[in-house]
């Protein structure tokens, strides 16, 4: 989600792939129907962390957890990058959260010393934690909160500094490339290994890190790769805000040597390659000691290209339709539909889990489908009159509300023991393959009790579907273990088949039982479910459009009512 470059020497080679790239989109609080007052970006730094490594310093990562209102459970919100060999990290990756003045948002920051590629935090050394609220951060002087890290008895775990900055609405990004000339030589046996660190200034005069380039080895005249950064991250949309750029010589032990620095602004950079964008790198200590000191080299802007980021709603405004299909599991493991213990039992007073999952997702996604007509499929039953086994059969083809009544027909069908998902995935895949111009996007909702009999074929169909304008939502109902479903959800390990990996992560799985409100508030249960299963759809949608180079169509002009000329009869 964050497209920040990972500077060599700062992030562990080969380790970052094991950690989900999370820290970006904040959780929407389903208990509030109001529009967020604003969005804030949290930046995290630590000082004097515990040293857990024997022959070097700790390699820290920060994990943020949030706690929903009325719920004691902590849920992971996101993770920063891993920074090598330091007890004083300034994490580049930020956490972006909705801020409501009238709500209490409990936060927990956990810190670990990363020792392997495993995304499992229990495999790493715990360095401590800090508890606070979002309001506590925002309400601190300068929106800067500094607190002690706790959690390890008898140990001083250091301090954490969290700063909050309200975000502007700028959607532009810039693609920039820099080179340098005649930088100071810092290595005794060779030339320097330079990299750049970009900081934006804050309202209180402090600076927040926003980007690091890669390291270019053994040269005093480096050319860094072009990198893309949002204008929001670079200057929060303030074109005249100071941007400080520091130049360092990378060292393996983490004690990087400072070469010098310079300042600029977005407005200056936007002039592009010119004499105005050649900067002297100044080392203040050297300048103060040496009378003949001129500079420690120069840095030159080679290119500056502005790109406007398009959003999910840009495509919707341009006419892209979201086509929704639902597939219902009718296998025998659901139980006899006539018995109250069955997952398909029709309670006259409330919807069952299948109905609630369908209603929760369908009522939201119908707003993006002009005709509100959703294909509904069943799988895992013998159909009358000949008892033919079917792993894909039509339920209804009426308007959405009638989808909810398909359960009344289950008594006419004999439920089968095995569930094959391949057929319903392939059915949606065929439709998606016929429309790849960006005018339509397909979402398949599979509601199942978790028994899967064709894992290999299903994985192959998902890998194929990842190349198409399609997403798959799987909602698990009932008490079963859903280990197989977790494998299909490629959040941690990208799904593969026959040596081929999915082009995109298109599957989102959630167990319905995690969303059942203990007070019996089914509206809240459905809101929580819909929020989580639909949260990844916009990014999955955008990832397909980006890979295919599809731009949103222009929004139609606003409707202008015709002018009627009044005629008067004489």
TrEMBL record:
<dbReference type="InterPro" id="IPR010734">
    <property type="entry name" value="Copine_C"/>
</dbReference>
<dbReference type="InterPro" id="IPR036465">
    <property type="entry name" value="vWFA_dom_sf"/>
</dbReference>
<dbReference type="InterPro" id="IPR037768">
    <property type="entry name" value="C2B_Copine"/>
</dbReference>
<dbReference type="InterPro" id="IPR045052">
    <property type="entry name" value="Copine"/>
</dbReference>
<feature type="domain" description="C2">
    <location>
        <begin position="16"/>
        <end position="147"/>
    </location>
</feature>
<dbReference type="Pfam" id="PF07002">
    <property type="entry name" value="Copine"/>
</dbReference>
<dbReference type="Pfam" id="PF00168">
    <property type="entry name" value="C2"/>
</dbReference>
<dbReference type="InterPro" id="IPR000008">
    <property type="entry name" value="C2_dom"/>
</dbReference>
<keyword id="KW-0479">Metal-binding</keyword>
<protein>
    <recommendedName>
        <fullName>Copine-8</fullName>
    </recommendedName>
</protein>
<dbReference type="InterPro" id="IPR035892">
    <property type="entry name" value="C2_domain_sf"/>
</dbReference>
<dbReference type="GO" id="GO:0005544">
    <property type="term" value="F:calcium-dependent phospholipid binding"/>
</dbReference>
<keyword id="KW-0597">Phosphoprotein</keyword>
<comment type="similarity">
    <text>Belongs to the copine family.</text>
</comment>
<dbReference type="GO" id="GO:0071277">
    <property type="term" value="P:cellular response to calcium ion"/>
</dbReference>
<comment type="function">
    <text>Probable calcium-dependent phospholipid-binding protein that may play a role in calcium-mediated intracellular processes.</text>
</comment>
<keyword id="KW-0106">Calcium</keyword>
<dbReference type="GO" id="GO:0005886">
    <property type="term" value="C:plasma membrane"/>
</dbReference>
<feature type="domain" description="C2">
    <location>
        <begin position="156"/>
        <end position="279"/>
    </location>
</feature>
<keyword id="KW-0677">Repeat</keyword>
<dbReference type="GO" id="GO:0046872">
    <property type="term" value="F:metal ion binding"/>
</dbReference>
